[in-house]
Amino acid sequence: MLQQFITRYSELNLGKYKVNEPLAPYTTWKIGGPADVLVEPAGKEQIVQTVRLLHDMQLPWMAIGRGSNMLVSDKGMRGVVIHTGHALDYVRQEDNLVHAGAGLSFIKLSVLTGNMGLSGLEYAGGIPGTVGGAVYMNAGAHGSDVSRIFESAEIVLETGELVRYRTEDMKFAYRHSVLHEIRGIVLEATFRLEHGDRHEIKALNAANKERRLRTQPLQAACAGSVFRNPPGDFSARLVEEAGLKGFRIGGAEVSTLHANFIVNTGQATASDVLTLMERIQQTIKDRYGVELVPEVLVVGER
Ligand SMILES: Cc1cc2nc3c(=O)[nH]c(=O)nc-3n(C[C@H](O)[C@H](O)[C@H](O)COP(=O)(O)OP(=O)(O)OC[C@H]3O[C@@H](n4cnc5c(N)ncnc54)[C@H](O)[C@@H]3O)c2cc1C
């Protein structure tokens, strides 16, 4: 069936594809086995057609943006991985509304809207994913998140139906959106921002960036916060207090800078990271009776 999919995808001229493609380079953790097939549809219409084809053929698929919140298993992904990538990396301004393609870097969007003198995305300056991934995760920082500025999104559902979802459809919550419950690909998101002072926006952006550089291992291969914060507390505080900073399994290490980050010191496998995550969860449960829940998404064949 996969071969039939590739044949049809090529005949329809939907974009690039790669067979048995290692996913590690597509993730910020630089970890993960191969996808049976990785496709990079050339544009919006091609993504829609790809999803329709996959639906007709009943093949499993997954979207990947920047891979900055994902742990791909060592065996990799069966089926088809749709890399939104650079095909949808545009931005269009309409007064205080900004329409952004799902493949655009969220950091770039933050910079561009700052240059436009639009306020609201200053918090996004250090979140290294795509617009699509940010909507999926309701990415947030510094007391804000996507839900605060979200207007609507154009989404292709797994059935191939094209819909426009507004905030009330999105079920936004802490690192959650309706896209965790139904399957679909964000093609474009529209954000409602506020006119502001360009210099103030840029200064806030720079301050946020500076704070991150001080507190997060941004040069290392990592995927941001590994665990969600438990109600009323911080995972990093618990992990640090438990003395786990610097604790290592194989090539995976609890960051010495930020206790809720796990860094790949060079040769870490997904299995190293998973074992380390389990050890952290067990330690925190034994000591504090708190169940840490992963924020990173563990995907692929186990
Ligand atoms: C150094 C560092 C710092 C970070 N700091 C923060 C932070 O402060 N706040 C925060 O919230 N996160 C943070 N993260 C995590 C991560 O950057 C965000 O969750 C980001 O929004 C994920 O986007 P992505 O494109 O990388 O998504 P991916 O990791 O590629 O995918 C995540 C999920 O989104 C889905 N997805 C991706 N694109 C689409 C699409 N177009 N349509 C539908 N679904 C899609 C994927 O299928 C997957 O289920 C950080 C990560 C790093 C490495």
From TrEMBL:
> What organism is the protein native to?
Paenibacillus dendritiformis C454
Q: Which HAMAP family match?
A: MurB (MF_00037)
Q: What is the designated name of this protein?
A: UDP-N-acetylenolpyruvoylglucosamine reductase
**What does it catalyze?**
UDP-N-acetyl-alpha-D-muramate + NADP(+) = UDP-N-acetyl-3-O-(1-carboxyvinyl)-alpha-D-glucosamine + NADPH + H(+)
State any GO CC term: cytosol
Q: What is its EC number?
A: 1.3.1.98
From the broadest rank down, the organism's phylogenetic lineage runs: Bacteria, Bacillati, Bacillota, Bacilli, Bacillales
Question: Boundaries of each FAD-binding PCMH-type domain copy?
Answer: 30-196
Indicate the family of this protein: Belongs to the MurB family.
- Pathway(s) it belongs to: Cell wall biogenesis; peptidoglycan biosynthesis
Q: Which UniProt keywords apply?
A: Cell cycle, Cell division, Cell shape, Cell wall biogenesis/degradation, Cytoplasm, FAD, Flavoprotein, NADP, Oxidoreductase, Peptidoglycan synthesis
Its gene is murB
